[in-house]
Amino acid sequence: MYCEKCGKEIPEGNKFCTHCGAPVRVAGPPAEQIEEQPEPAAAAETQQLQPEATQVETGATQIVPPPVLPAEKPATPQGAKKTKILLLILIPVILLVIAGAVVGIVLWTRSGPTLKAEIKSLDLDLGSGDRIDLENVPLGETLLVTVEYLAVFPEGGEGTLQIMVLDSEGNDLLEDNADKVKSNDKPQTFEYEYYMEDNLAGESLDVSAVLEVKKGTEESSNEEELAYKASSEGGTKPEPQEDLTEARQQASARATEARAAIDNLSGQGIDVSGLPEMLQKALHLVEHGTTLAELMGETDSAMFYSNYILNECHNRYQAYLERKAREQDIAAAQQVMMNYAYANTTQLEGLHLQNFYMNNERTIATALLWGMVTAHTDPENAGTVMTADMRAEKSGGQWVVTGFNPHGG
Hints:
With 409 residues, the protein is α+β, with helices and mostly antiparallel strands. The protein contains 6 helices and 13 strands. About 9% of the residues have low confidence.
C-alpha cells in the first residue's frame, strides 16, 4: 500500500503514513463508519506538535511517530533537460564575448596610439633669453624661437617640426629648418636660433611653426604664427634683469629720502605744497616701472621726481633759514638805531623809524628817525617834528650806527 500524498510505501493496516503523517483511506467500510479526518496539512501540523495514541483494529494501542516533513521533489527529467539546453546556449555566447575582447585588445595594442599634432605655444626672444618688443625687433641680433608642442604617433610613424620666417611676400627667409620629432604623450620643447639681417629694417615678418605627424596615408598637422616687425633703426635691447633690479633699488632708496625731507619741512611749519603729489609719481614708477628710463631717466622717471623733491626741500629750507636770519638782523639793526636815538635826542618823544631798508646781504640798514619836540624840554618849539637819517652797519656780527643826520621838521 502507498501513501496518496507522498507516494511512499506504508505497512498494511496503518491509518497514517509513517513518512508524511497523511491519513490513509481504507476501502470497504460504509461512509458513516469512516471517521472524519482533519485536512492533511492540519493533521501534519497536529502530528508535528504532539504524537497521538491511536486505537487500531487489532485492539492494541500504537504510538505513531512524529511525521517527517516531505522532502523536496527531485527535478524531473524534463526540467534537467531544459537546464542543459540553456547552458549549451550560454557557454558559446560567453566564449564569443571573451574572444572578441581579447582580439580587440590585441588589435589596439598593435595599432598603437592615434595621431596627434598640437603646438601649445610659440615665443620669440633674443638669443640671450631676454624679452623683446615685437613691434621693434632689433637688427643684427640672434633671435631665439621657442616652440612647445605635443606630437603623438604609433610605431612606424614619423613627425617633423618646421620653423619658417616669412616676409611680407610670403618668402621663407630660413634654410634647413625642419627637424624630426619623437612621439611622446607629454609636451616637448624645441628651440631654433636665427640671425636678423640689417637689410630687413622696417620689414613686417611672421615666424611660423608647422608640426606634422603621419603613418602611412594617415596624417595630422598643426600650425602657429607670430607676427613681428623689424626695427628701422637697429631696435632697442631690453635692459638685463639685474640692471633693472639695481635701478629699482636705487630709485626706491631715493624716494625714501624724498619722503623724509617732506616730513622734515612739514614738521617745522614750512610750506610743502606740491611735493606729496610728486612723491606719489616717484613711488608709482618705483613699483611699476619696467625700463631703466622709467626708473633712472633724466626726465619723468622715479629718480627724477625724487631728486626734484630733495632739491626743492633744500631750497625751501634755505629760504626759511634766510627769512629767519633776515628777521633777526632787522630786529637787531632797528634796536641799535632806537638805542642811539634815545641816547642822542632826549628832547624828542614819539620816536620811531620809518622807511626802514636792509640790503640782501644783510650788512647795511637805513631808516628815517621821526620824533616830536616835547614841551618840557623846549616849550617854544613844542610839537615840532624832527627827523634824522640813520645808517647802521653789521661788523663782526654786530650792528652799529655809522650815520646820524638830523634835520628840522
